[in-house]
Amino acid sequence: MSGSSSGGGPVGDKDDGLYYEARYDYEATRTGDLSFSVGDNLMVTGPRAGSWWLATNVRTGQTGYIPSNYVNSRAFSNAAPTPGSTRRVRAIKDHTSPPPNCLSFKQHQRIELIGKEEGGWVKGRLLGSTGDDAEGLVPLDCVAEESSLQGHEWYMGRISREEAETLLNATENRRDGTYLVRDSTQSTSGYTISVYSGGEVLHYMIHAAGNEGVYLNKSLPFPTLPALLAHYSIHPGLSFTLTTPAKKESPADVRGEDPWEIDRECVVLGEMLGQGQFGEVYRAKWNVDIEVAVKALKNDCMRRKEIVQEGATMRRLRHPRLVKLYGIVNKPTDQPLLLVTELIPRGALHKHLRHLNENGHPHSLGVLVKMSAQVASGMAYLEGEKVIHRDLAARNILVANNLDVKIADFGLARFIKGEFYLRQSTKEFPVKWTAPESLVHCIYSTKSDVWSFGILLYEIFTHGGLPYPGVGSKVASELIRAGEVNKCPPGCPSQVFALMMQCWHLDPSQRPAFATLHQLIGHWAKEWQAGRLYWAEK
What we know:
Layout: E1 18-21, E2 41-49, E3 52-57, E4 63-67, E5 87-91, E6 110-113, E7 121-126, E8 135-139, E9 143-145, H1 161-168, E10 179-183, E11 191-197, E12 200-208, E13 214-215, H2 225-234, E14 267-275, E15 279-286, E16 290-297, H3 301-315, E17 325-329, E18 338-342, H4 349-358, H5 365-384, E19 387-388, E20 397-399, E21 405-407, E22 414-415, E23 421-422, H6 436-441, E24 443-444, H7 446-461, H8 473-481, H9 494-503, H10 514-529
Antiparallel strand pairs: 1-2, 2-3, 3-4, 5-6, 5-9, 6-7, 7-8, 10-11, 11-12, 12-13, 14-15, 15-16, 16-18, 17-18, 19-22, 20-21, 23-24
């Protein structure tokens, strides 16, 4: 726009931050103009040049000049409307209304309410639609104010970081740029945007600063969350470009009336993947086409209680580094109990590592570090949930086709209310992975899991080697009680062995927390991927 005035306001008049509402659709025909649709909120961000104003479309995040005669003469307000006045809302779910005079609509459609509320209903019309079916009564529990975040498919409310990661790691969401927005767990007024990018989930704090708007970078504020998201959908100002809001449900999570009880007829067992004292593990199909793993228990009442306990533990835990439980087949009770979980194709980590090593194709240090970081991530989640695993070992870590790993086998896991759990049963337990205080005093805690994590690191960096090689469980028990630990294996980087030694500190309080381990090993993994980490073998 030039510096001459053609009526209206003088050049240079500023109306920064003032909102107007579009009365008509406008399709830009010149470079520098801004397109918008009826009902869009437009914020004047710069000088008026006659009847043309510089503005930002809140819906799209784009900026350009708008014709002032296409917008309402009064500023748009987010204030609550007076009874009986018109206001615009957005559907938060589908609604099909069979009674006469009612309006049917789909989630996210925009509706203008034009009547007075009566008994939870109000008259409304669909914006952008015409005809007899475009107007009718609207149930208020199916809509939310457009300024409310509930009307947006990307807003997930107060879910945790781990729940966000689980959602974004679901098969239908694993595409670069898929995102969601959630209430921040670190701030009462801010938000967090979680984005799937480059095979991992990234989290960024969105600051809400009152009149200053919202921003990721303080030098680039936006009036609303939709405006911020629209901007980063077009301009990659961070390490990603936003593409699609995350889908809220995975098809594999659809259940019947009981969310965890699966109909036995819906599970068809296939190839046996392994077996043990408890029973067998099968590859199977659930609901015709969903591939799953099934742990089939022998008819043993005591073991049945333990597997039910394992399922009860797993159903309370959701994290991308934990094997997902789909449900339990427990009826009829005179048939084997089935534990149905996601299928992790490459099986147990120790066998996977040994097979590659024996065939002359061991994983690189970078892959081993990545696997270690992923296990630490899952264990940091358990640490935060006050859960101890008590059987952390490479045999209970499963490997996916993309070499991601997940923690499995929660048969010994326990929720703890205090600092530790006192084992009371006398059944056998994995001695070579067990911390000294657990061997001597039967005391288990997150710190005893950290000891086991150190043993797991030993297994990983020996490509599936056994801890305390050459000795049996009885001798290993004596060595552990005496304070003896594994020697540094050949080819293991000194930094990794130093971390193992921290995990094996005889004083549990001196062992690192899993949150610390995750941060450190995760940093190693990123540095290795970027080509900035070079280790000498010890």
